[in-house]
Design brief:
168 residues; two-stranded parallel ribbon; single chain; six-stranded antiparallel β-sheet; 10 strands; alpha+beta; 30% helix; globular
Length: 168
């Protein structure tokens, strides 16, 4: 069985040029790292080594491991958490317990949690905000393993529109 490694890379790395949709990789392009994390992708250990190491360190802290896990160990967990057969797995959780960077669905739209606000996601950026409701259950798109890493303190990269909405 092949291992599914869903990673979040940099768009440019060491001036490499590769054919999109080439052998060995299926390229996906995300709005930002928060979006990639919601899909179950983790930072790449080759092109984003510092971020990947920080992610693994927070994973170890969240899971109470003695050592930083290797990529394959995290991938096994994430693969089981992100898919339900071929469909996106959702996790029903209390909104109050979600960290910044968690993605949820509410009223058939995708929203990212940021502080006391929810930011509405679109393919081109976050375009609306509303107060985060309290004491409700929501469908969470971000896998539990990544939620634990976010709760432990990992700081993902947000699209610039998130800062504009969050601070206004």
């Amino acid at each position: 069985m092949s291992r599914a490694a869903w990673i979040c890379c940099r768009l440019e790395f060491n001036n490499r040029q590769r054919q999109v949709w080439g052998r060995g990789y299926t390229e996906l392009f995300f709005l930002d790292e928060v979006t990639a994390l919601s899909a179950g992708h983790r930072p790449c250990f080759e092109c984003r080594r510092k971020d990947a190491q920080a992610f693994a360190d927070f994973w170890a802290h969240a899971k109470k491991l003695r050592a930083r896990p290797c990529a394959a160990e995290m991938d096994v967990v994430l693969h089981a958490e992100r898919l339900d057969d071929r469909a996106k797995r959702r996790h029903r959780l209390r909104i109050d317990d979600l960290p910044d960077g968690a993605f949820i669905t509410l009223d058939d739209e995708a929203w990212a949690v940021r502080g006391t606000k929810l930011l509405r996601w679109t393919p081109s950026g976050y375009n609306a905000r509303k107060r985060r409701p309290k004491n409700i259950l929501v469908d969470v798109l971000t896998p539990p393993g990544i939620l634990a890493v976010l709760k432990a303190g990992y700081q993902p990269q947000w699209h610039p529109s998130a800062a504009t909405l969050h601070n206004s």
